[in-house]
Please model this.
Amino acid sequence: MLRPSLARDIVLGILVIAILALIPALVPSKAFQDFVIRVAAMALFATSLNLLVGYTGLTSFGHGMFYGLGTYSFALLMQKTSLSLPMAFLLTLLITAATATVVGAICIRLRLIYFAFVTLAMQMLLHSIIISWVGLTGGDQGLQGGIPRRVVAGFDLGNQHTLYLASGVVLVIGLIAMRHVVASTFGTSLRMIRDNEARAAFLGIVVWRVKLAVFVLSAMFAAVGGVVTSLFVSGAYPELINWPISGDAIFAIVLGGIGSFLGPLVGTIMLTVLNDVVTRTTEYYGLALGIIILVFALGLRRGVVDFVTERLGFRPSGGVS
Amino acid sequence: MDLAALAECVTSSSCLVTQTTSGLIVGMLLFLVAAGLTLIFGVLKIVNFAHGTFYMLGAYLAYSVFRVTDSYTLAVVAAGAGMGIFGIVFERALIARVYGANVLMQLLICYAVVLICDDLVKIVWGADFKAMGMPPEFQVPPLFVAGGVVPPFYILLITVALAIGGGLGLTLALTKIGKIVRAAAHNPNMVSALGINTTLLYSLVFATGAMLAGLAGGLAAPVRSLTPGMGFSILIESFIVTVIGGMGSIAGALIAAVVLGLIRSFGTIGFPMFTEGMMFLVMIIILVVKPSGLFGREIV
Amino acid sequence: MLEVQSLTKRFGGVAAMTDVSLSFESGSLTAIIGPNGAGKSTFFNLMSGAIVPDSGQVVFNGENITGLNRAAIVRRGIGRAFQVASFFPSMTVAENLMAAIAAHRGQWGDLAHSFPRQGVRTRALEVADLLGLADESDTLSAKLSHGDQKLLDIALALALDPTALLLDEPTAGMGPEERWQMIEKVQRLWAQQRLTLVFIEHDMDIVFSIASSIRVLCYGRVLAQGTPDEIRANPAVIEAYLGTPETDEPA
Model:
């Protein structure tokens, strides 16, 4: 059964894709297409992190491990096997889900800051394994040699314009799917656990199962972002699984707002624009970005989208204020 | 992975002494940084993600003071004092605004400061590696203990770090202010109910933590190459130390720091590619077995 | 019938509950009283599965439910409300109740359907109405008055169609007038829903006016049990209460 808001999300999604399809005809800009591909990958990743942070209250510092795992699994499957691209994509999701089940089963036993640190440690452990397993992963040089067999159903994802559109479509589908997750009864269980875990348990929710499920689910969405990135950079590199990747996603969701579904997307766009503008205008990227972050963090004390929705008198749909 | 080499080293006294000594100095520096981190967390319940930056600034400050005065003692004292003051300013101006806020807000503010300071260091001191060089007093041949190499400077480092750690521990255990700090860590409400000025207390604790990181940076300056961003790896390692030792526990930090230092020094022989991974592995195992760390109390 | 047999629990070296055996008849309205630190909340925690006893049994309608997890105990029909009102502050009253009902109906893992599924909202409004919260159904629960938050907490337990309800100090933190309003609601609820209701209460006037039966705990042991009249005349109870002056402070 299609609920009205899902129908609305789908219409909105189609509209966004149509606009994305029109833009290159009006303003042909390779830089813009690059920008959209990068935003699509990062926004999927950041929004998936917010399923944990904003909706469930699980602050993970190591979510980048699944984004990175997505890039490596996909790139490796494409390079070392003869699987088709869609098969490699599905298998990547499967590998990520399996890994996240094991990692999650260990991590969700811990709470608060300990959960944050153990997830970070897990990511760094995986990073170390990738760096030291040179034979398989190329070590700190990364997986070079490109991604073969990029043509899917007549669409060549090696072509910049096609990849641009495909990224837009994947982003829209991913966001609608995640939106559906948070609007489901399962999504309500997430908010119950975030608000009051003990009470949720007394109402009959088996808390660890919900936590593990959302951990695995969000890992899979992060891996989708990783696959987009892998196609964009034609490979996989250790930087894509190193700690700053998790940091970027955290900044995106905090800047955009953990209390709103679209906060992470807005935060990602802001961060990507900032990154592009600042690196072009000054060599002191950190100085400029740091000052901007301080102004936002101390000025608004919440994410931009949360700030705007509260000012307009709406109640945030997700996160804690 | 070269376990044969590791076994050979452990059975040879010279290699054992050399590696243990170098493991100990890594561990001691780490301990000073982590002790500050764990102290701040214990009392203020703030995770200071900018702690590595204090270490870096301390090292650069010591470098400059040493260039001007030629006195290593003065350089270290300046690093400690300078970072103590910087810590107060940082706590009052920024951290005080996010007490009780989401840990992500704290992370964001600290990260902004890390970014800003890394670039300020580039502007003031330049982006290239800087080396302070060994102070002339220590430009002497190393000692040989059971065939192993032990530079006198290392002995100084270990002694000074232990003395500072011991002084900190005694202050916490015996003095009135130490009792207040411990009480604040246990039960913040009680301390404010007793009429103790928590604002002052928090500033003092933050300054002490920052000072410890600054001292570590100053002490390390002769044996580390200085570079913007050098704060980051020590930050990650001191997090591992505080988590393993138990957040808020100084004794736990000491033990965990030594263990980590030894993993680092022996790891370079046995598993050079995987020393970092090994540290994280140890951290995960400890957290799974005892979630609050070796000496920590569960924080609810 | 809800009963416990030889329940014992130690925390560290401290005995919190020693050899407690009590039973609560189906459909009874029982008050648990006792000085602060008597182990009343621990007793509730043991019966509702929040903590597991070191020895002894909890038996509900003939079934041994000792050691079952909270969710399993809830499914068997034991609901509870808390001393400090416990609910989901980011949700409205109706959303709180719908969430509880959906959880109770086993939909908490449901990814396929959007929330709330059919019938859930209707039932939520019914439950809200039982406790006089219908007018507040679209109010954010964090913004409710203290008394309404306590009612919401009870409503959440009630949303699970319990047959036994444990209320930990339903009147905690309320003024005298509010207390009586609250206790009247509780009494009406008990009568309407034919519940086995057990409540912890400090106010002796309230206890003696509504409870059909009273259990007195002291230092983790059963000090006395009986009808209000029996308890009033019990020398051990008089001594315990005169020995340690009664306090109103919520423990």
